[in-house]
Write a structure and sequence with these properties.
CATH architecture: Orthogonal Bundle
Helix content: 40-55%
CATH topology: Arc Repressor Mutant, subunit A
Order of helices and strands: HEHHEHEH
Strand order of the largest sheet: 1-3-2
Number of helices: 5
Number of strands: 3
Radius of gyration: 11 Å
Shape: globular
CATH superfamily: Winged helix-like DNA-binding domain superfamily/Winged helix DNA-binding domain
Length: about 80
């Protein structure tokens, strides 16, 4: 896990919108998008259509809708975050 992934996961203990995550971390939009894509591939984060509605992996389109999604660390992501 790199420092950027650690910082992003630190903010995802609760459901957070992309804009809230960007504001909290101060990470530039394209870098944050890339980091979230990496975290999704590792299954450390999940995407949600709203605070209550989790998206299936096949429904996620990070190229078109990443700014509209909400994000939450998975159990696997939290375990990785807490082992450092």
């Amino acid at each position: 896990m790199n420092d950027l992934e650690f910082e992003v996961l630190d903010e995802l203990y609760f459901v957070v919108s992309f804009s809230q995550l960007q504001e909290a971390t101060g990470i530039e939009q394209s870098a944050l998008k890339e980091c979230l894509q990496q975290l999704l591939e590792k299954k450390w984060v999940k995407c949600m259509a709203s605070i209550d509605d989790e998206l299936e992996e096949s429904e996620v389109d990070m190229n078109a809708h990443f700014q509209q999604y909400y994000y939450l660390a998975t159990k696997k992501g939290l375990m990785a975050h807490n082992t450092l």
